[in-house]
Amino acid sequence: MATYKAPLEDMRFILNDVFQADRLWASMPATAEVTRDLSDAILDEAGKMVENLLFPLNRDGDEEGCHFDNGQVTTPKGFKEAFKTYAENGWTAFSGNPEFGGQGMPKSLAVLFEEMMHSANSSFALYPALTNGATLCLDAHASDELKQAYLPKLYSGEWSGTMCLTEPHSGTDLGIMRTKAVPNDDGSFNISGTKIFITGGEHDMVDNIIHLVLAKLPDAPAGSKGISLFLVPKFLPDADGNPGERNGVAAGSIEHKMGIKGSATCVMNFDDAKGWIIGEPNQGLAAMFTMMNYERLSIGIQGLGLGEVSYQSAADYARERLQGRAATGVQNEGGNADPIIVHGDVRRMLLTMRALNEGGRALSTYVGMELDKAKFSENDAEQKAAQDRVALLTPIAKAFFTDRGFDTTVIGQQVFGGHGYVREWGMEQFVRDCRISQIYEGTNGIQALDLAGRKVTRNGGKYVDAFLADVRGWIDDNANEQGLDSIRERLVAAVDLLESTTAELLRQAGDDPDMVNASAVEYLDLFGYVTYAWLWARMMVTAAQRDDDFGRAKLTVGRFYFERLLPRAGALAEQIKAGPATLMSLDQDLF
Amino acid sequence: MATYKAPLEDMRFILNDVFQADRLWASMPATAEVTRDLSDAILDEAGKMVENLLFPLNRDGDEEGCHFDNGQVTTPKGFKEAFKTYAENGWTAFSGNPEFGGQGMPKSLAVLFEEMMHSANSSFALYPALTNGATLCLDAHASDELKQAYLPKLYSGEWSGTMCLTEPHSGTDLGIMRTKAVPNDDGSFNISGTKIFITGGEHDMVDNIIHLVLAKLPDAPAGSKGISLFLVPKFLPDADGNPGERNGVAAGSIEHKMGIKGSATCVMNFDDAKGWIIGEPNQGLAAMFTMMNYERLSIGIQGLGLGEVSYQSAADYARERLQGRAATGVQNEGGNADPIIVHGDVRRMLLTMRALNEGGRALSTYVGMELDKAKFSENDAEQKAAQDRVALLTPIAKAFFTDRGFDTTVIGQQVFGGHGYVREWGMEQFVRDCRISQIYEGTNGIQALDLAGRKVTRNGGKYVDAFLADVRGWIDDNANEQGLDSIRERLVAAVDLLESTTAELLRQAGDDPDMVNASAVEYLDLFGYVTYAWLWARMMVTAAQRDDDFGRAKLTVGRFYFERLLPRAGALAEQIKAGPATLMSLDQDLF
Question: What pTM value is reported for the model?
Fold first, then answer.
């Protein structure tokens, strides 16, 4: 069966020992109160909460799924009560703005909390995740009046939030959306249209649901420059700020999906629903995107979290399942077979999972810290450099976490053999739940295009140059550190490869407009593997200072990463260099 | 929505033009009557049958699944009637021994038929596939009396067959199984024990179910050398050969699985069930394995078939779905967006799928022909060489078809974006259905171990040497052919890489008993990519002789394979060379 314990030791190692996040927090007024003791205590409590409250609901939630009946959505048994406890204990306020009742925890701590949530119960985790997204957007762009009316209720968990972007014919291409917003005399708008794939669009865990809706004003320019953002509550707040009159928005149905079955994915029909604009007219996409870096990282973490629970379950199973004998002779004298963890291939599977999970955890923490600097730093140069790092690394984190997370859940299922295919064992659910993370919040192909296009070629590789300087600077500073010796050469070669391949991408993109789109996914993968190599090197240098099992295991997993996973970067570079000519040459009727 | 048409043009191109299978058939008495006209007509009819009879049942069959009630299993609506039609039209007899009512069609034709079956309805396809496996085993090893009594009913589709190997504690490691067989005075045996994961163990489509069961005799030696094989019918045949008295075997439950939900996966309880031995006592595994090469190829083809239907559906969707604009400017002047097939990344996805599907189809046909030679050739040298090729390539085909097939179904789902995650669109079912093919019939890790251990290191690379000689011989013979020019250098480099990596595997395996198990999966993948490169080269040489769209498309897809997929071989070789030391060094408690 699937098993999960919050990986607190590794989380603390990364947060405290590798990155010394508390030093960063202390340096910025907004986070100065977050000490190492506090963050350790919070991780402890979060671990207990997800293990005891959310993980036990995961398997049954998948089997039962959500129910739709005449516009009402019922979440799986136990979800509603668990959400009440979750909210009462303050978790819904975790990273909210303290001015409106949030706890103001830094993103570098939130990413570890979010990872635990997705490990324990990905369907459940999505309800607060979407609310977080909505509050971030409101906090950044809404009027003070809207913030006062909505943020406290959202932070308290009494209400929840959604993001309404997609329409049946308009997904990646939001410019062609049809939902309309007609202004009223009182400054409000009437919103009409149909939105699909709305996570938490309707459910039974809160008193009110606040939709952030993209729509077009009557005089809006065509395309993505004509999109505005609106707040549309399910119930209009009454004079006391409590849910009052029902608004013209309702769920038309829920989707029957491959996974995340406990998460209600709704078709939402808006019929002259009353809403208020957030930010400026026709600037809706920009408003949405200011919070996208936060949300994309969090959705990436869904892949990480599911990879972790799959790894832990597979490692436990591999220690217990007796089958065959070790290549070097009998290991389990008393039994009729050895535990399958003696077999090289099982170890290859487990170490692949673990190297990807821990590399990912390091990157999520690193990007979390850069997001904290980008938001809270009072040093302009530090803030700007952090913003650039976030812009570059966010699409990588989202796509690479989820692609490698999916691979990881598939490997974990494989460790269980036939039992992995049977629902009651729980391993196949992780595969199904993880699969969506590669698709939503911008498909991973779109993430790759954002990276290779907007973040690399359109600025002539400026962000990449800064990133390479970060990595080379770190290598120089740590040239004589134990832990780096065995892998230094491979790391330098990987960094060189990223540099030369970026130059090749820029060169070919100058000649052929199809180059970026045709190479983007391979380029993002290459970037991901090289970034993990750097972060593994950082972990190895820190681990080499310890004389304990944890440190020795870390060094072994790190060496495995360099020997058995990093070589993939070489193949990716070769594929990118091939260019777009062949794949663009086939007539579309011949596919 | 998912769409499927049997890919007859490509099948005929491979079978007739690339491999000229009809020349082989004509050269052997057992297959001499199979002409090109006949095989073309059979493929036509098979295509119509799967498109009209089986594909329409696929989606609903997944939603409904199988039902279990008090020992009875009901298949999804329509399956029973479809199976009746299927059997009446002779498809159950396709490759059966003509002496007992089979049609004696060669395996090289059967592989294409099997691919269509799995494209159209993988759950349905498994019922006749298991029966095929049982009849092959009976035909090769059972007494004439058993053959006479059972083969005609199995070929006619009145009865079906199963393979009962796995027990709850005994999967890969069959040596520790507990099912017992106690001899009776009349030469029969009483079988008792529990078998799990039995495909088609109980269902409602036939009058009788014939189980082939592995069990241990009372005096059997320990381990895999003490396993015997028994035939155990659900109903004991009466004096007329019709189903008579109920035997002591019954389904205890069915599994609730990730996919192939229309296929009944049963727990089978044997309680003093009457059975008859097949072959010699304690030689049951050997008997089972003589038909494994046939069955493993067929199960591999499940991956191919699902990859093909996923590709076709994704290509259709990509031509229809309008979203965004081409990098080179507007392509669809009248519409508000271009079809997504204009985007380089969508083409990369589609061409990856197609290059893997068509490479796989070529390999399945190639191995099918070698199986035909191995079974029917009257030339001893040809027969022996074919047996060696089959031994080497079968684990590759099973694992590589299904691993790449799974990748392909995942990519096809990705092309659909969010719609790919919604059940009604059908794309996620292919992913779930395909996933089992990597696990059952020997996990892909076990296939890799069979290749790298038994088929390579244990005979000092003899089979590989012969394979490399085949490939190099072909390259020499075709050195001046058009079609080979653009990829010749890459092909030769790939063959050299396989040779040097095999030498490295042999060298390290001599030093370290863990080398084989720790590198097997990467070695199999490397072998698969190099083998596809050779087969793509063969297809390209043949295609270059045509002056039509089909030929030009083939050449383009082939170039794509060499540019964008074959480079993976280099990374795999590097990973293999790293050796097993790192991954074996971690204490099992530290995972």
Answer: 0.98
